[in-house]
Structures
1.
Amino acid sequence: MSHTTGQYRKLNNPALGWLLGRVFRLWRSAISQSVKPLGMTEARWAVMMNLKTLGEGTSQHTLASELGIEMPSLNRTVNQLVELNLVKRREHPSDRRCKCLWFTQAGNTQLQALDAYVGSVRGELTQGITDEELDGMFNVLKKIESNASALLNKPMEGDK
């Protein structure tokens, strides 16, 4: 085994998962700090940015799943965004029990401001990292994501 491979394996221990989590928390905190002037909490901007990514008309259930939160938590945040006139709920076309989310005009304006703040933070956080390094890191993280999804969807021993 080469020294480089040994070094990689030494780094590829539980500390890698810890570091991924730490970077994720710091990244989110940096965004939250930057968007305070917009009156955005972490919960609010996370819902808005994820709704943008998933697309308007996304169901609340899908959004909650993507955010990894329970429906009551999402409902509280969506209620706040509705009160701020940033999003609106509409019934799903084929399931009246299901509510889908859409941006209001004010929400689209706020989303543009959020994009600018988040883009600025992203630029600062990735300062000194080449495009090639970022592409490589993205590809590695996508592989880890895929492996994690496969692992979580794999039937456990004893399941029928």
2.
Amino acid sequence: MAKQKPASRAAARATAQKKSPAKPQAKSSSRKSLKAARAAPAAKPRARAKQRIAISHYRNEDFVPNGLRAYAHYRDLGIADATQGLAQAHVIRLIGPCNPAEVSKLHFHDVEFQMVYVLKGWVKTWMEGQGETLMKEGSCWTQPPKIKHLIRDYSDDCELLEVILPAEFKTVELAT
């Protein structure tokens, strides 16, 4: 005996629903989950410390050898104080000529964000997963958290702008 075709599309849908009743139930439960997710209260944003304006004008005497590296002088831009430690920004003047034995130390920084912009000269860097890159005046790069990197070489007039979050962080030197 041959099967009869349903007379209309509505009849065909009704026949299909009788054969597979699990689908409408699955949709119903996923709709309930979606409604519950929409109704859930959003996480409150983390309270940030009040920030103030920071203004820093160029003065050559502000470059001091009080930073992370002995071959660099740093000019603090006042961002750490103005943001109560949220971020740090400074201009780094690398002191030439470059001594590869001193600068080529593999390390990483335990930071949330790090960006470097070449203001003057050039610097040759090596970053894990990227390899060696020559960064010239106007070049900019980010270094993801804890990425292993080092400086290979730099020009005698190299100056870098560096922005880091948070202002206080740990640097870990690695054996090469």
